[in-house]
Amino acid sequence: MKKIQILGPSDMECRRLAENAKSAARVLGLIYKIEKVVDTGTIRRFGTAVMTPALAIDGQIRIAGRVASVAEIQKILILFKNPDLMIK
Hints:
Strand 3 and strand 4 form a beta hairpin. 41% of the residues lie in helices and 24% in strands.
């Protein structure tokens, strides 16, 4: 099961990023859990300068400071599913 974390306040950008992540995981048929991380102390543990909104997959920041598209998140999830692939 993939753990998808959305880091940042519960604002419109974070909600859009969460919806895009859910859509990407569903299209790929992944089993996933979405977790919203709003606590600033917890967010800082990911890195000292994490810009929000941010997307983490299995505890690793993959996108920060913007809302990624469904297609972009799909590419990231495919890479995590098959780490031997190189995504361009």
